[in-house]
Amino acid sequence: FATVSPSSLSFLDTPVGVTSSATTAGSNQITITNSGSAELLISTIVTTGDFTKSDGCGSSIAAGASCTVSVTFTPTAVGNRYGTLTINDNASGSPHVVQLAGNGLPAPLVTLAPTSLTFAEQPVNTTSSRTQRGSNQRKLMHPCVHGCHAKLKRGEGHTRRELVPSEGVEP
Q1: Of 21-25, 113-117, 126-130, 135-139, the least confident
Q2: Can you count the helices (H) and strands (E) in the chain?
Q3: Is 103 in contact with 50 (CB distance < 8 Å)?
Q4: Paired sense of beta strands 51-55 and 66-73, if any
Q5: Mean of all residue pLDDT scores within the chain
């Protein structure tokens, strides 16, 4: 006899293309328990929709033992997204189906290249800058860098990020 818990997972709102494991219940894990007296043989564990799984269940669960399946949500479109996690095994009631749901939000409006900037060692209270190009600077968030402050200056088709150390190398 196999039990699967919970019977459904609802994921928090997630931007399109972003992978999330955050659920309304606080956990993205599903537990499969073999409450029978014989080995539970698992033939497949599969997901549908915008959901993927990872598990350490293997092909069997010993009597009285359990395993967990972690599910993540990566919406491919805006709006309500639905799927299932289906466990096929040799227990009565197979297949066991867990309902999955999430909501896709519009993708972030900013893409930056490069994705990281490296600043050379800089004396305290002096300015160093790098240019970072993006597709839309209207939604650009001000960075928070430990031990310094940064300024963003918008220009035509680019954003200039200036880093001013507030501690570190003295001039």
Answers
A1: 135-139
A2: 0, 14
A3: no
A4: antiparallel
A5: 80
Token pair of 85 as six digits: 């996690």
Could you tell me the two tokens for 31?
């537990």
Return the structure tokens found at 86: 């289906």
In terms of C-beta density within 10 A (0-12 exposed, 13-18 middle, 19 or more buried), how is residue 91 classed? buried
Asked if residue 38 has pLDDT above 90, the reply is yes
pLDDT digits (tens, 9 = 90+) for 46-93: 999 999 999 889 999 999 999 999 999 999 999 999 999 999 999 999
- Do the beta carbons of residue 108 and residue 15 sit within 8 Å? yes
Return the structure tokens found at 36. Answer: 């029978």
Residue 119 CA, chain-centre distance (Å), reads 29
Band (15; pLDDT cuts 50, 70, 90): very high
Return d(Cα 77, Cα 104) in angstroms, integer: 6
What is the predicted pLDDT for the residue at 147? Answer: 44
Look-up: residue for tokens 């409006």?
Answer: 109
C-alpha–C-alpha distance, residues 85 and 38, integer Å? 24
Diameter over CA atoms, the chain: 75
CA angle 128, 130, 132 (to 5 degrees): 155
**Cβ atoms 9, 71 nearer than 8 A:** yes
